[in-house]
Fold:
Amino acid sequence: MSKLDTRSIEERLEKLEGWEYKDNSIHTSLEFENFKEAFSMMTRIAFEAENQQHHPEWTNVYNTLNISLSTHDAGGVTEKDFKLALAIEKLIDA
Ligand SMILES: C[C@H](O)[C@H](O)[C@H]1CNC2=NC(N)=NC(=O)C2=N1
Structure:
């Protein structure tokens, strides 16, 4: 999977509300009602990540979740990151 250039990353980001490109990754920040809701969503995302064999870098503090996606093997952002980001958006909207 080859690394996408900045222009194609920005183009794809137009369809992903709340995501931005910085530090060679795409990022989002989510806020939930409480810790249980945040961790429940992390569990759902974890199963999806395992299915895709593509995994987030993330931090959780109480009700907040910060997610960064990049493809380590490619040294940047690839289609794999957008595939996982879209799946995360679907889980959030579900
Ligand atoms: C062999 C295995 O599929 C690879 O190590 C995968 C696992 N999950 C991964 N996740 C992410 N975010 N980037 C990778 O390059 C990556 N590589």
Summary: The pocket of H2B is lined by residues 53-55, 71-73 (CB under 6 Å). The helical segments are 6-13, 35-52, 79-93. The chain has a mean pLDDT of 97.
